[in-house]
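Build the 3D complex.
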Amino acid sequence: MNQTKRDIEKLLDIKTTEIEKIEKNKKLHEESVDITLPGRKHERGGTHPITLVLKKIEEIFLSLGFKIEEGPEVELDYYNFEALNIPKDHPARDDQDSFYINREILLRTHTSPVEIRVMEKQQPPVRMITIGRCYRRDAADSTHSPMFHQIEGLAVDKDITFGDLKGVLTVFVHRMFGEDRKVRFRPGYFPFTEPSAEVDVSCLLCHGKGCRACGYSGWLEIMGAGVTDPVVFKMVGYDPEKYSGFAFGMGAERIAMLKYGINDIRLFFENDLRFLKQF
Ligand code: PHE
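Done.
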């Protein structure tokens, strides 16, 4: 009896080992990993070129003593136009074809309304910049986008002059584009500044000699600016006899295009990784 029991146990042992071996082999085969395959790369995100430019601009103006302020993208007609000396029937409204929500509310067409909001809640001195999205009913092409970013600046104090505006913007251009850039102030028109100027920087490609990029003028326009109109101060309850100020506004996309040599504004919004990976 015992001998038979041992024999059976032995046979069982042999069979079990055999089955285990087959199972193990099968498993090894099924789970085999090709260790020669290259590993999967983790895609790392980067900073969008517009964000890079905005950060740099913030850094420059913070170092000059400006504070960062914010305002709404859905804005009242009053702040976007009226308080900036652009009444309902003013032709300057035509320059900024707008997205209206109703007769009194629209998507802001520029960041200048933030100037009004800031002046309403504080007394001079003011040194502020604000950065944000703006909207205009423009058809998209290589230089227009219905949504874009603006950087607005405002300084109000006693004895602020056009000279201060020139000084601040010249420092800005030198830090943004390089010390060898020249800055030019051309007479311009904005209803909320008087006098007003269009600010040009010498062409980054031809250094002012004239080439295709600058339309053979040697200059590229980068922003609008001027001395704050006393009418605007009256709107916010500042005494124009006591205070003066300057303001400027520029498009972040335009600055980025000039800084990095980008020829189509649509590239910023298409999310094409081949473009984004270059920054
Ligand atoms: N808000 C003006 C625009 O969008 C730019 C500007 C700002 C001009 C401040 C003068 C002063 O065209």
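The two ends are 85 Å apart (CA to CA).
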